[in-house]
Amino acid sequence: MSGRHSGQQQTHTVEGTDPQLYVAVHEPAADAGLRPVLLVHGFSSSSKLNWEDTGWVAALLDAGRRVITVDLPGHGRSGAPEDLDSYSPSRIRADLLQTAFDAGVRPLQEGEPSSGLDVVGYSLGSRLAWEFGATQPEITHRLVLGGPNISDPLAEFDLRAAQDYLADGTPIADESTAQLLKMALLLPSNNIFALLSLVEAVKAEPYDPAEAVPHVPMLLVAGDKDERAGSLPQLAELARKAGGTAEQLILPGRNHTNAVTSRAFKQAAVRFLAGQEPA
Protein backbone atom coordinates (compact mmCIF):
# COMPACT_ATOMS: atom_id res chain seq x y z
CA MET A 1 0.00 0.00 0.00
CA SER A 2 1.45 3.33 -1.01
CA GLY A 3 1.03 6.63 0.78
CA ARG A 4 1.00 7.77 4.39
CA HIS A 5 -1.52 6.70 6.99
CA SER A 6 -2.71 8.06 10.30
CA GLY A 7 -5.24 6.45 12.61
CA GLN A 8 -6.89 7.86 15.69
CA GLN A 9 -9.75 7.41 18.10
CA GLN A 10 -12.02 10.31 17.27
CA THR A 11 -12.70 12.49 20.30
CA HIS A 12 -14.90 15.16 18.69
CA THR A 13 -18.36 14.95 20.19
CA VAL A 14 -21.68 15.31 18.41
CA GLU A 15 -24.83 16.03 20.43
CA GLY A 16 -22.87 15.80 23.67
CA THR A 17 -21.70 12.17 23.49
CA ASP A 18 -18.29 10.91 22.40
CA PRO A 19 -18.91 8.43 19.56
CA GLN A 20 -15.54 6.72 20.24
CA LEU A 21 -15.05 6.13 16.52
CA TYR A 22 -11.72 4.96 15.13
CA VAL A 23 -10.90 7.09 12.10
CA ALA A 24 -7.94 6.63 9.74
CA VAL A 25 -6.87 9.09 7.05
CA HIS A 26 -4.73 7.60 4.27
CA GLU A 27 -2.66 10.03 2.21
CA PRO A 28 -1.57 9.11 -1.35
CA ALA A 29 2.08 9.34 -2.33
CA ALA A 30 1.05 11.44 -5.35
CA ASP A 31 -2.18 13.42 -4.90
CA ALA A 32 -4.45 13.54 -7.97
CA GLY A 33 -6.04 16.76 -6.75
CA LEU A 34 -9.48 15.17 -6.39
CA ARG A 35 -11.79 15.14 -3.37
CA PRO A 36 -11.34 12.59 -0.55
CA VAL A 37 -13.15 9.25 -0.54
CA LEU A 38 -15.02 8.09 2.57
CA LEU A 39 -15.36 4.30 2.93
CA VAL A 40 -18.22 2.91 5.06
CA HIS A 41 -18.12 -0.82 5.88
CA GLY A 42 -20.89 -3.33 6.50
CA PHE A 43 -22.48 -4.93 9.56
CA SER A 44 -20.08 -7.00 11.72
CA SER A 45 -17.12 -6.00 9.54
CA SER A 46 -14.52 -3.23 9.95
CA SER A 47 -12.54 -0.81 7.82
CA LYS A 48 -9.56 -3.19 7.96
CA LEU A 49 -11.53 -6.25 6.83
CA ASN A 50 -13.82 -4.48 4.36
CA TRP A 51 -11.42 -1.99 2.79
CA GLU A 52 -7.77 -2.49 3.74
CA ASP A 53 -7.40 -6.29 3.50
CA THR A 54 -9.38 -6.39 0.23
CA GLY A 55 -7.15 -3.84 -1.53
CA TRP A 56 -9.62 -0.96 -1.73
CA VAL A 57 -7.50 1.53 0.19
CA ALA A 58 -4.42 0.60 -1.87
CA ALA A 59 -6.33 0.95 -5.18
CA LEU A 60 -7.63 4.38 -4.26
CA LEU A 61 -4.22 5.54 -3.01
CA ASP A 62 -2.64 4.34 -6.25
CA ALA A 63 -5.21 6.50 -8.08
CA GLY A 64 -4.03 9.51 -6.07
CA ARG A 65 -7.08 9.68 -3.84
CA ARG A 66 -7.08 10.65 -0.18
CA VAL A 67 -9.01 8.01 1.78
CA ILE A 68 -10.97 8.27 5.03
CA THR A 69 -11.95 5.05 6.80
CA VAL A 70 -14.16 4.74 9.88
CA ASP A 71 -15.02 1.79 12.10
CA LEU A 72 -18.72 1.91 12.99
CA PRO A 73 -19.71 1.84 16.70
CA GLY A 74 -18.97 -1.53 18.31
CA HIS A 75 -16.93 -2.62 15.28
CA GLY A 76 -13.19 -2.99 14.72
CA ARG A 77 -11.14 -0.48 16.69
CA SER A 78 -14.05 1.80 17.62
CA GLY A 79 -15.50 1.93 21.10
CA ALA A 80 -18.88 0.59 22.19
CA PRO A 81 -20.90 3.44 23.71
CA GLU A 82 -23.52 2.45 26.26
CA ASP A 83 -26.24 4.80 25.01
CA LEU A 84 -28.53 3.42 22.30
CA ASP A 85 -28.61 6.73 20.41
CA SER A 86 -24.96 6.32 19.39
CA TYR A 87 -26.00 3.40 17.16
CA SER A 88 -28.93 5.02 15.35
CA PRO A 89 -28.39 5.49 11.59
CA SER A 90 -29.11 9.22 11.87
CA ARG A 91 -26.55 9.64 14.64
CA ILE A 92 -23.96 7.60 12.73
CA ARG A 93 -24.51 9.80 9.66
CA ALA A 94 -24.01 12.89 11.82
CA ASP A 95 -20.78 11.40 13.16
CA LEU A 96 -19.63 10.58 9.61
CA LEU A 97 -20.32 14.18 8.60
CA GLN A 98 -18.27 15.45 11.55
CA THR A 99 -15.51 12.98 10.65
CA ALA A 100 -15.42 14.39 7.11
CA PHE A 101 -15.22 17.97 8.38
CA ASP A 102 -12.49 17.01 10.88
CA ALA A 103 -10.53 15.52 7.96
CA GLY A 104 -10.72 18.82 6.10
CA VAL A 105 -13.56 18.14 3.67
CA ARG A 106 -15.05 21.36 2.28
CA PRO A 107 -18.44 21.99 0.65
CA LEU A 108 -18.63 21.39 -3.09
CA GLN A 109 -17.55 24.34 -5.23
CA GLU A 110 -18.09 24.66 -8.96
CA GLY A 111 -14.84 24.11 -10.85
CA GLU A 112 -12.95 22.94 -7.76
CA PRO A 113 -12.27 19.17 -8.12
CA SER A 114 -10.81 18.83 -4.62
CA SER A 115 -13.97 20.09 -2.92
CA GLY A 116 -16.67 17.85 -1.52
CA LEU A 117 -16.57 14.14 -0.79
CA ASP A 118 -17.08 10.85 -2.61
CA VAL A 119 -18.59 8.01 -0.56
CA VAL A 120 -18.31 4.24 -1.01
CA GLY A 121 -20.52 1.99 1.12
CA TYR A 122 -20.96 -1.76 1.32
CA SER A 123 -24.04 -3.61 2.63
CA LEU A 124 -25.15 -1.68 5.75
CA GLY A 125 -22.63 0.93 4.63
CA SER A 126 -24.58 1.34 1.38
CA ARG A 127 -27.74 2.18 3.35
CA LEU A 128 -25.82 4.76 5.36
CA ALA A 129 -24.20 6.15 2.20
CA TRP A 130 -27.54 6.42 0.37
CA GLU A 131 -29.05 8.38 3.26
CA PHE A 132 -25.87 10.43 3.70
CA GLY A 133 -25.89 11.43 0.03
CA ALA A 134 -29.57 12.34 0.18
CA THR A 135 -29.23 14.48 3.31
CA GLN A 136 -25.79 16.04 2.67
CA PRO A 137 -25.96 17.26 -0.96
CA GLU A 138 -23.69 20.21 -0.18
CA ILE A 139 -20.67 17.94 0.20
CA THR A 140 -21.57 14.65 -1.55
CA HIS A 141 -20.21 14.42 -5.10
CA ARG A 142 -20.60 10.75 -6.11
CA LEU A 143 -21.70 7.50 -4.47
CA VAL A 144 -20.65 3.88 -4.99
CA LEU A 145 -23.02 1.42 -3.31
CA GLY A 146 -22.01 -2.23 -3.07
CA GLY A 147 -24.54 -4.91 -2.12
CA PRO A 148 -27.32 -2.33 -1.63
CA ASN A 149 -30.89 -3.25 -0.84
CA ILE A 150 -34.32 -1.74 -1.27
CA SER A 151 -34.92 -2.63 2.41
CA ASP A 152 -32.66 -3.16 5.42
CA PRO A 153 -32.23 -6.87 6.38
CA LEU A 154 -31.37 -5.83 9.94
CA ALA A 155 -34.94 -4.56 10.32
CA GLU A 156 -36.14 -8.20 10.26
CA PHE A 157 -33.49 -9.41 12.72
CA ASP A 158 -35.06 -11.34 15.65
CA LEU A 159 -33.45 -9.61 18.63
CA ARG A 160 -35.17 -11.74 21.27
CA ALA A 161 -34.09 -14.98 19.59
CA ALA A 162 -30.50 -13.71 19.38
CA GLN A 163 -30.51 -12.73 23.04
CA ASP A 164 -31.93 -16.12 24.05
CA TYR A 165 -29.25 -17.89 22.02
CA LEU A 166 -26.49 -15.89 23.68
CA ALA A 167 -27.99 -16.51 27.13
CA ASP A 168 -28.56 -20.26 27.00
CA GLY A 169 -27.98 -21.57 23.47
CA THR A 170 -31.65 -21.70 22.45
CA PRO A 171 -31.68 -22.43 18.69
CA ILE A 172 -32.69 -19.56 16.41
CA ALA A 173 -35.57 -20.40 14.07
CA ASP A 174 -35.11 -17.47 11.67
CA GLU A 175 -32.34 -18.38 9.21
CA SER A 176 -31.36 -14.79 8.40
CA THR A 177 -31.02 -13.92 12.09
CA ALA A 178 -28.97 -17.05 12.74
CA GLN A 179 -26.60 -16.28 9.84
CA LEU A 180 -26.11 -12.63 10.82
CA LEU A 181 -25.42 -13.54 14.45
CA LYS A 182 -23.00 -16.29 13.44
CA MET A 183 -21.15 -13.84 11.21
CA ALA A 184 -20.99 -11.29 14.03
CA LEU A 185 -19.62 -13.85 16.50
CA LEU A 186 -16.82 -14.91 14.14
CA LEU A 187 -14.86 -11.69 14.64
CA PRO A 188 -13.20 -11.27 18.07
CA SER A 189 -12.97 -7.50 17.52
CA ASN A 190 -16.77 -7.19 17.48
CA ASN A 191 -18.62 -6.24 20.64
CA ILE A 192 -21.64 -8.49 20.20
CA PHE A 193 -23.82 -6.57 22.65
CA ALA A 194 -22.96 -3.31 20.88
CA LEU A 195 -23.91 -4.90 17.56
CA LEU A 196 -27.27 -5.91 19.01
CA SER A 197 -27.71 -2.31 20.14
CA LEU A 198 -27.05 -1.29 16.54
CA VAL A 199 -29.74 -3.70 15.33
CA GLU A 200 -32.19 -2.30 17.89
CA ALA A 201 -31.41 1.26 16.77
CA VAL A 202 -31.79 0.32 13.09
CA LYS A 203 -35.21 -1.14 13.84
CA ALA A 204 -36.21 2.16 15.41
CA GLU A 205 -35.31 4.07 12.22
CA PRO A 206 -36.82 2.12 9.30
CA TYR A 207 -35.04 2.42 5.96
CA ASP A 208 -37.07 3.76 3.06
CA PRO A 209 -34.81 4.71 0.13
CA ALA A 210 -37.74 6.42 -1.63
CA GLU A 211 -38.14 8.85 1.27
CA ALA A 212 -34.91 10.69 0.50
CA VAL A 213 -33.07 9.99 -2.77
CA PRO A 214 -29.55 11.22 -3.57
CA HIS A 215 -29.42 13.50 -6.61
CA VAL A 216 -25.76 12.71 -7.31
CA PRO A 217 -24.32 10.21 -9.82
CA MET A 218 -24.30 6.69 -8.34
CA LEU A 219 -22.74 3.34 -9.20
CA LEU A 220 -24.76 0.37 -7.89
CA VAL A 221 -22.88 -2.94 -7.68
CA ALA A 222 -23.75 -6.50 -6.64
CA GLY A 223 -22.71 -10.06 -7.40
CA ASP A 224 -24.99 -12.09 -9.64
CA LYS A 225 -25.28 -14.67 -6.84
CA ASP A 226 -26.37 -12.02 -4.33
CA GLU A 227 -30.14 -11.80 -3.91
CA ARG A 228 -29.69 -8.05 -3.41
CA ALA A 229 -28.83 -7.73 -7.10
CA GLY A 230 -32.58 -7.57 -7.65
CA SER A 231 -32.65 -4.24 -5.79
CA LEU A 232 -30.34 -2.48 -8.24
CA PRO A 233 -32.96 -1.70 -10.92
CA GLN A 234 -35.39 -0.46 -8.25
CA LEU A 235 -32.83 1.86 -6.69
CA ALA A 236 -31.74 3.08 -10.14
CA GLU A 237 -35.38 3.88 -10.99
CA LEU A 238 -35.75 5.87 -7.76
CA ALA A 239 -32.67 7.86 -8.73
CA ARG A 240 -33.99 8.44 -12.27
CA LYS A 241 -37.37 9.68 -11.01
CA ALA A 242 -35.59 12.06 -8.63
CA GLY A 243 -33.56 13.52 -11.49
CA GLY A 244 -30.35 11.67 -10.69
CA THR A 245 -28.38 8.98 -12.49
CA ALA A 246 -27.38 5.48 -11.45
CA GLU A 247 -25.15 3.06 -13.32
CA GLN A 248 -25.46 -0.64 -12.54
CA LEU A 249 -22.73 -3.28 -12.43
CA ILE A 250 -23.31 -7.01 -11.90
CA LEU A 251 -20.28 -9.10 -10.94
CA PRO A 252 -20.32 -12.63 -12.41
CA GLY A 253 -19.84 -15.46 -9.92
CA ARG A 254 -19.86 -13.19 -6.87
CA ASN A 255 -22.13 -13.29 -3.82
CA HIS A 256 -22.77 -10.83 -1.01
CA THR A 257 -19.79 -12.05 0.99
CA ASN A 258 -17.07 -11.93 -1.68
CA ALA A 259 -18.22 -9.21 -4.10
CA VAL A 260 -16.22 -6.61 -2.21
CA THR A 261 -12.98 -8.45 -3.05
CA SER A 262 -13.62 -8.23 -6.81
CA ARG A 263 -10.89 -6.46 -8.81
CA ALA A 264 -13.51 -5.49 -11.40
CA PHE A 265 -15.55 -3.81 -8.65
CA LYS A 266 -12.55 -1.79 -7.42
CA GLN A 267 -11.48 -0.78 -10.92
CA ALA A 268 -15.01 0.30 -11.89
CA ALA A 269 -15.38 2.32 -8.68
CA VAL A 270 -12.04 4.10 -9.09
CA ARG A 271 -12.91 5.06 -12.67
CA PHE A 272 -16.44 6.13 -11.77
CA LEU A 273 -15.31 8.31 -8.89
CA ALA A 274 -12.79 10.00 -11.21
CA GLY A 275 -15.60 10.76 -13.68
CA GLN A 276 -14.21 8.36 -16.30
CA GLU A 277 -16.15 6.11 -18.63
CA PRO A 278 -16.21 2.35 -17.86
CA ALA A 279 -13.22 0.42 -19.20
Q: How does the helix and strand content classify structurally?
A: alpha/beta
Q: Which bin fits the share of residues in helices?
A: 25-40%
Shape: globular
User: What is the count of β-strands?
Assistant: 8
Average predicted local confidence, pLDDT = 91
Query: Uncertain spans, ≥5 residues at pLDDT below 50?
Result: none
| Order of strands, widest sheet | 1-2-4-3-5-6-7-8
Rounded to an integer in angstroms, the radius of gyration calculated over CA atoms is: 18 Å
Largest sheet features:
8 strands, mixed
DSSP strand content: 15-25%
- How many helices does DSSP assign? 9
End-to-end gap: 23 Å
Pattern of helices and strands: EEEHHEHEHEHHHEHEH
Structural notes for this entry:
- The chain is an alpha/beta fold.
- The protein has nine helices and eight strands.
- The protein has helices at about 45-50, 55-60, 90-100, 125-135, 160-170, 175-185, 190-205, 230-240, 265-275, and strands at about 5-10, 20-25, 35-40, 65-70, 115-120, 140-145, 220-225, 245-250.
- Strands 1-2-4-3-5-6-7-8 form an eight-stranded mixed β-sheet, sandwiched between helices.
- Strand 7, helix 8 (about 230-240) and strand 8 (about 245-250) form a beta-alpha-beta unit.
- Helix 3 packs across helix 4.
- The mean pLDDT is about 90.
SSE topology:
Elements: E1 4-9, E2 22-27, E3 37-40, H1 47-52, H2 56-62, E4 67-71, H3 89-102, E5 117-122, H4 124-135, E6 140-146, H5 159-168, H6 175-185, H7 192-204, E7 218-223, H8 232-241, E8 246-251, H9 263-273
Parallel strand pairs: 3-4, 3-5, 5-6, 6-7, 7-8
Antiparallel strand pairs: 1-2, 2-4
Helix pairs in contact: 3-4
